[in-house]
Write a structure and sequence with these properties.
Length: about 180
Amino acid sequence: MLDTPNWFELKSIPNLISLCRLVLIPYLAYLISVDNWPLATGLAVLLGFSDFVDGWVARRFNMKTELGALLDPLIDRIFISAVLVAMLWSDVISVWILTSIIGRDFLLLVVNSIRGNELAVNVVYVGKMGTWFLFVSFALLFMNQLFTSISFAGFGSAAIVWSVIIYWLAGWHYLRDAVKR
């Protein structure tokens, strides 16, 4: 548990990368909401790559921290929520997609809070797959907006539905774990 923040951990390279990602998320949401798809796509790719890099650097150079274990999945949730809200605003997705994904995260937050559990969860493979599928479906939906002459809508729609299913399967696992703790 992260009772007292170790501010030295903020200075680790992976955590600084995560914090940069956090700072850029509102700008990404803004770019999506004003339909600036070229810049939004470029920034989303950069943020997705930085998500990979911070984890790789932490593992490769033994720079894992408790703060990083909390920050990385939290920033992923903020990224996902911001992108979904902005895409809803731009009529790219429907409200059921937004509510089903954010609803799962909210449910887990409430259950963990009521049970007095730590907010940091042990990330499982299906959870990583759910997040990965969401990122892939975002990429397909972005491409549909970016390249209007080629339709990625069918692929993006199918990917987002699969993402919701996998995201909820992971949520079920996390919920079961939260109730056991």
